[in-house]
Amino acid sequence: MDSAISERSATGATRRELTATADNGLKIVVVGGFGVGKTTLVRSVSEIRPLNTEETMTQAGQGIDETGGLEGLGGKTSTTVAFDFGRITLDAHNILYLFGAPGQERFWFLWDRLFSGTLGAVVLVDPRRLEDSWYAIDRLEHHGTPFIVARNDFGGSAHTLDQLREALDLDPGVPLVDCDARSRESSKDVLITLVEHLQSLYAAQRHAPQETAQ
């Protein structure tokens, strides 16, 4: 997937500084399989120059970081080895911190620590390799972390979102959306969907009848 961003992100002239009044940091994690576009999404939407830990894949990684047999990844030459980090200012008091998790299986041990203190998560999927998303969904459900699923655009999909939901065995309450991780507006829409999902869950919990003490 071409990693060119369709809109100019705030890594240049529109870069914003963290204000003294921003006192709430909200942590969001972007997870998914190898090469699904997590780094691209964080880069496209962050208002600061993102911190990333991408390293060039070398011959030492052959047999471990193999991409030749994976559809659409034959030209991938780098990989995230720790996490990506970006930031979005929501308002004067709230900042959204984005953490892009590494996608390769040998770095999955980092995920549980990244999930600590996480408000919610985005599971980014490549519709050509749905099986790479199962582990991410399983770990989020294990931790009880709210999440949404975003199908990244790799040139069109032969399946509908309903078919994708069935293939991933998603709960009906989990939002499922399309996105283009290269587009700032599309990536923002994904995050808005997640925030709205979190708000609806919080509202439901507030209005749920309290259990009567025995």
TrEMBL record:
CDD domains the UniProt entry points to: Ras_like_GTPase
Gene3D superfamilies per UniProt: P-loop containing nucleotide triphosphate hydrolases (3.40.50.300)
InterPro entries on file: Gliding_Motility_GTPase, Gpn, P-loop_NTPase
Organism of derivation: Streptomyces atriruber
Protein name per the record: ATP/GTP-binding protein
Signal peptide extent: none
Family the UniProt entry places it in: Belongs to the GPN-loop GTPase family.
Keyword terms of this UniProt record: GTP-binding, Hydrolase, Nucleotide-binding
Domain of life: Bacteria
